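Researcher: Here's the sequence for the chain we discussed earlier.
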Amino acid sequence: MDFITQLPLPSSFDSILVIVDRFSKMAVFIPTMSSITSLDLANLFNKNIFSKHGVPSSI
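Model: Thanks. This is the structure I predict for it:
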């Protein structure tokens, strides 16, 4: 997981959350704001990752 920040503002988003599945090498890019809180980040994971792929059984 990483953030790409300080992007130009063509819309209301100024950052991109990048999540890479190390097994399949699939990357997910989620537009967000640089002022994201930990609660907002958890909600993004629930909405964009866990809802599509499920919660991991181990880390």
